[in-house]
Amino acid sequence: MDIQALVRELKMKTDSKIVFLIADGIGGLPVEPGGPTELEAAKTPNLDALAKAGVLGSMNPIAPGITPGSGPGHLGLFGYEPVKYLIGRGALEATGVGFKLGPKDVAIRCNFCTLDAAGNISDRRAGRIASEESGPLAIKLREVKIPGVEVFVEPVKEHRFCVIFRGEGLGGRVADTDPQKTGVPPLDPVAHDDASRKTAEVAKQFYAQAVKILAGQPKANGLTMRGFSAAPHIPSYEEVYGLKAAAIAVYPMYKGLAQLVGMEIVGEPNTLQEEIDVLEKEWKNYDFFFVHFKYTDSRGEDGNFAEKVKMIEQFDAIVPRVAALKPDVLVVTGDHSTPAALASHSWHPVPVLLSSPACRPDGCQKFGERETLCGGLGQFSAVYLMPLALAHAGKLGKFGA
């Protein structure tokens, strides 16, 4: 079934408002047998109060057993089939920092990394170098010159930056150079098809010049390249859902994804509290809000259970401010699971909380993985979250006579 095609037929304009409050990578695992997950260990009185009055479930971002990246994870949240709409990380990062991709462009999301004397990676994120340090280094890489290709380098945030190659005959299907582990050198960029061979060669040339420029840096003396991609073609939120949608996020990648599906980026927040300030300020201007919190995912990727618990508790603390706005539907979930026990994204279903006057309460008392397994929403594919939200907001008409 093409759920978006069905929603296009049934969508209705109303004054109701929907908020998606997204804690990136919120799903977790116990670190010891029988113990709590990060969400279960956290003190979350506000989320638990919503859980008692609302309905819970768990969600597969792509399909059972498939571990999603952040791009596919968010596409599923937004109701777009991630396998159908492939958006590379490079396009997300470039769009997120305001770079308008053209038809001859290939964008790459890059990480600064630390290389040891043997050229092996000792830190994949260069110690999560501060933006104030990484930004000037990214700009320095604009010195790279490759015959026949324009090269653009844009700072992103912390250890991240993006590179855009512009020229004839560039394809976007090139393998990542991040080996996803330390103690080994970055991988060579390898083309997945003939159309991308030139891109792979250009990437090799970029890397060779870049490491010479970075030589001597104490942290960011190397780089890895991920998510090679051209500009995608994707229908907008207005087309599919009839929604005037706003995105509130700190990190450029999530702003980029939101823009690619037709959301407007509002505010320039740097903290979660500032994100809610923007939500309050813009409340009358939109009927759908995507609010993104990153650090639950970051602490999970660091393998730090206790710090991820703290981030969840920070997230819980802003819930009363959101609830005070009285959204007709408030959804709390994540784009994927990032258990500290694995220090990476995982395939585990993501907890979902839906609060609305129109919901059917299920008797669950707390927002946690065990409770969501018993919730009234059951376990479902992420592409059905938007139809559920629209229905609870009174924005979907009846199907058939």
Structural features, described:
The chain is an alpha/beta fold and 401 residues long. It has 2 domains: 3-86 and 234-392, Alkaline Phosphatase, subunit A (3-Layer(aba) Sandwich); 92-229, no CATH class. The chain has helices spanning 3-10, 38-41, 45-53, 70-77, 89-96, 131-140, 197-214, 237-241, 252-260, 272-282, 295-301, 305-317, 319-323, 369-372, 385-392, and strands at residues 18-23, 55-60, 105-115, 121-123, 150-157, 160-166, 222-229, 245-248, 264-265, 288-293, 329-333, 350-355, 378-381. Strand 3 (105-115) and strand 4 (121-123) form a beta hairpin. Helix 5 crosses helix 9 (252-260) and helix 11 (295-301) runs antiparallel to helix 12. The longest helix is centred in the middle third of the chain and has 18 residues, at 197-214. The relative contact order is 0.25.
Poorly predicted regions are none
**Shape call:** globular
CATH superfamily of the largest domain: Alkaline Phosphatase, subunit A
What's the number of helices? Answer: 15
Mean pLDDT: 95
- The CATH class of the largest domain is identified as Alpha Beta
